[in-house]
Structure formats: structure tokens, C-alpha cells
Recover the amino acids of this structure.
């Protein structure tokens, strides 16, 4: 873990190092504001401004979910997520651990296959029919993260 080690390979850029530390901080702590993250980074001798944190959040696809910042999905998956959004017609909660996605007719299996290939850590598994997908998550917070990630914007 980067928080416990000051020894990083020399080829790491400061931005990459900062991104990895930010991801570790938001994963292990309830970070509720940019100012709180700036303070945590400062305590690790990483000097940043709130505007640079805002840019980092955009680059890392970090958003506030239930009052705390979380990475929605890995940025590399963003293009695939964008492509499947065209087929998603609606997203509803079905209890506290399941999402119900309605897709274009005949698209559910293809969309579910893409979701499975993304290997999103918050998703336990998917079941699909012709125009419906059930997505199982480990908990309600993961359900909200996936809903936000896949939601039509």
C-alpha cells in the first residue's frame, strides 16, 4: 500500500503517485469533501489545491455517493460503459442488493456480457433475459455506485 511506503519506483510521476494515494484514501476512509482530502494528502506531504483534487476526481471518475467520495468504475472502462448506455432504457432498485435494467429488445444478453467483462468489483454477477438484466451487488452502497455509473446522463 502506498500510504505505508515512502519508497516508490523512480519512474512514477507525481500525478500517478497522487492518484494511487487518492484512490487508497477514498477506499479506506469516508472522505466527504475536497478540503478533507487536501488535508489528508497534506499530512502525507503531498501538496495539492482543491482545484487539482477536482481535476483528479474527474480523471479518476470519482463522485460522491451517500455523502462520501467513491470511484465509480475504472476510467479504462468508461468507453465501454458509454457504449452500453445507449441500450439501457431504465434502471430500478429491486431490494437493497439488486438492480433491474431494462434494455432495448434483444440487447440484454449483449449488455450483460459487456458488464461481466468489465469485472467491476461492486458487481457479484448478472442474469439476463431478452430485454431485462438483474445485477447483484454485495451491498446497498455498491448498488448505488453501479446505478450511478450506468445511469443515463
Amino acid at each position: 500500500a502506498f500510504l505505508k511506503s515512502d519508497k516508490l519506483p523512480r519512474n512514477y510521476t507525481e500525478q500517478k503517485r497522487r492518484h494511487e494515494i487518492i484512490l487508497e484514501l477514498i477506499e479506506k476512509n469516508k472522505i466527504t469533501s475536497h478540503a478533507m482530502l487536501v488535508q489528508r494528502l497534506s499530512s502525507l506531504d503531498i501538496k495539492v489545491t482543491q482545484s487539482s483534487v477536482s481535476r483528479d476526481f474527474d480523471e479518476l471518475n470519482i463522485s460522491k455517493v451517500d455523502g462520501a467520495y467513491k470511484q465509480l468504475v475504472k476510467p479504462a472502462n468508461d468507453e465501454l460503459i458509454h457504449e452500453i448506455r445507449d441500450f439501457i432504457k431504465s434502471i430500478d432498485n429491486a431490494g437493497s442488493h439488486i438492480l433491474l435494467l431494462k434494455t432495448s429488445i434483444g440487447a440484454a444478453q449483449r449488455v450483460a456480457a459487456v458488464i461481466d467483462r468489465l469485472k467491476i468489483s461492486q458487481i457479484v454477477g448478472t442474469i439476463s433475459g431478452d430485454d431485462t438484466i438483474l445485477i447483484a451487488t454485495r451491498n446497498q452502497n455498491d448498488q448505488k455506485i453501479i446505478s450511478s455509473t450506468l445511469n443515463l446522463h
User: Anything to note?
Assistant: The mean pLDDT is 85. DSSP finds six helices and six strands in the chain. The two ends are 34 Å apart (CA to CA). Residues 29 and 68 are 9 Å apart (CA to CA).
